[in-house]
Write a structure and sequence with these properties.
By secondary structure, this protein is mostly helical. The protein has a domain of about 90 residues. It contains eight helices and no strands. The longest helix has 15 residues. The protein is elongated and about 85 Å long. The chain binds heme C. The site of heme C has 23 residues, from helix 4 and helix 7.
C-alpha cells in the first residue's frame, strides 16, 4: 500500500471512530423538563404562573368584568385565596370548585406543584 492510500485509510478510521456526538436534547431533556421546587417565590414563580393563565380575567383591571370580582394580582388577595383553599381547589379541578383557568387547559403538573409548594412554605411574600 502506498503512502497516499495509508493516509486515506487513517483519515477514514479517524473520521468514523474519532468523534462522539452528544445529542443535546437527549442529554438535557431531563434537566429542561424537571420542575424547580426549591426556588419557589411569590414574585418569580407564583405571579408569572397566574399572569400567564389567570390575569385575562383576574387582574385588578379585569376582575370586575371577567373574573367575578376575584383578584389574583396583589399578594394579599392571592394569599387569602391560598389560605381558604380556593386557589388550589380551582387549579386542581377539585370537586366543589369551578375549574380554572376557566375555559382553558389545566395548569401543568409542575405549575400546580409550584403553587402548592409556595403554600406549603407558608405563602411568603418573597
Ligand atoms: C376566562 C376567564 C377566567 C380565567 C382565565 C380564569 N378565571 Fe377564575 N374565575 C372566572 C370566573 C367567571 C369565576 C366565577 C366562577 C365561575 O363563573 O365559574 C372565577 C372564579 C375563580 C375563583 C373563585 C372560586 C370560588 O370558589 O369562589 C378562583 C379562586 C379562581 N377563579 C382562580 C383562577 C385561577 C387560579 C386562574 C388561573 C389559573 C383562573 N381563575 C383563570 C374566570 C376566569
Amino acid at each position: 500500500m502506498n503512502q497516499f492510500l495509508k493516509a486515506i485509510l487513517i483519515l477514514v478510521i479517524i473520521a468514523t471512530t474519532g468523534c462522539y456526538y452528544d445529542n443535546e436534547e437527549k442529554l438535557y431533556s431531563e434537566i429542561s423538563t424537571s420542575c424547580d421546587l426549591t426556588n419557589v417565590t411569590f414574585a418569580a414563580t407564583v405571579k408569572p404562573i397566574l399572569q400567564a393563565s389567570c390575569y385575562a380575567c383576574h387582574s385588578n383591571a379585569n376582575a370586575t368584568s371577567s373574573g367575578d370580582g376575584i383578584k389574583l394580582e396583589n399578594y394579599t388577595d392571592v394569599q387569602n385565596l391560598a389560605k381558604n383553599g380556593k386557589l388550589m381547589g380551582t387549579v386542581n379541578h377539585s370537586k366543589g370548585y369551578p375549574a380554572m383557568p376557566k375555559g382553558g387547559g389545566k395548569l401543568s403538573d409542575c405549575e400546580i406543584n409550584q403553587l402548592q409548594k409556595w403554600i406549603d412554605n407558608g405563602t411568603p411574600n418573597n
